[in-house]
Amino acid sequence: MSVAEILSGKSGDVITATPQTTLVEVANTLAKYKIGALVVKEDSVVCGIVSERDLVRHVAADGAEALDHEISHCMTKTVISCKRSDTIDTVMEKMTAGRFRHLPVMEDGELLGIISIGDVVKRKIEQAERDAEDLKRYIAS
């Protein structure tokens, strides 16, 4: 199973922010769309990613005044991404190694989508259920 299959079940919309977006705006956007991370773009170029964890760490360090800071101060600037052709196992390895739960899907510098660990686990469970059913049918025949 590939990332392309995960993306096919999602809307093509990726919620983004700019480096100048404040943390309070990020918090409101995450809550509004019920998502855990935003890709940060400047002039159509991905320059970072900010997650709930980044927001919490920044507020813990600087207090409530951190909510007025721009996300450029707390976003992850080195963005690890995947491609549509990547397998679910490859994506799981990247997420585990990097200890993050969201992975932008990019090809040729273009942001195609974003997948979460929840998306990956859901597909992995579906795959395991299909494999189990196939094995049951094989044994029964």
Question: Can you characterise this structure?
Answer:
With 141 residues, this protein is α+β, with helices and mostly antiparallel strands. It has one domain (3-140): CBS-domain (Roll). Helices cover 45% and strands 20% of the residues. The chain is built from five helices and five strands; from the N terminus they run H-E-H-E-E-H-H-E-E-H. The protein has helices at residues 3-8, 23-33, 52-62, 88-98, 117-140; strands spanning 16-17, 37-42, 45-51, 102-107, 110-116. The protein has a three-stranded mixed beta sheet with strand order 1-2-3. A two-stranded antiparallel sheet has the order 4-5. Strand 2 (37-42) and strand 3 form a beta hairpin. Helix 4 crosses helix 5. The radius of gyration is 18 Å and the shape is elongated.
Produce a short descriptive summary.
This protein has 141 residues and is an alpha+beta fold. The chain is built from five helices and five strands. It has a single domain (3-140), classed as CBS-domain (Roll), CATH 3.10.580.10.
Topology, element by element:
Elements: H1 3-8, E1 16-17, H2 23-33, E2 37-42, E3 45-51, H3 52-62, H4 88-98, E4 102-107, E5 110-116, H5 117-140
Parallel strand pairs: 1-2
Antiparallel strand pairs: 2-3, 4-5
Helix pairs in contact: 4-5
CATH topology: CBS-domain
The number of domains is 1
Class inferred from helices and paired strands: alpha+beta
Work out the radius of gyration. 18 Å
Summarize the helix and strand pattern as letters: HEHEEHHEEH
Biggest β-sheet: strands ordered side by side in the sheet: 1-2-3
At the fourth level of CATH, the homologous superfamily is CBS-domain
β-sheet strand percentage: 15-25%
Number of helices: 5
Architecture, according to CATH?
A: Roll
Number of strands: 5
- List segments where confidence is low: pLDDT < 50 over at least 5 consecutive residues: none
Largest sheet: 3 strands, mixed
Indicate the percent of residues in helices.
40-55%
Mean pLDDT: 93
CATH top level is Alpha Beta
The separation of the N and C termini measures: 26 Å
Give the overall form. Answer: elongated
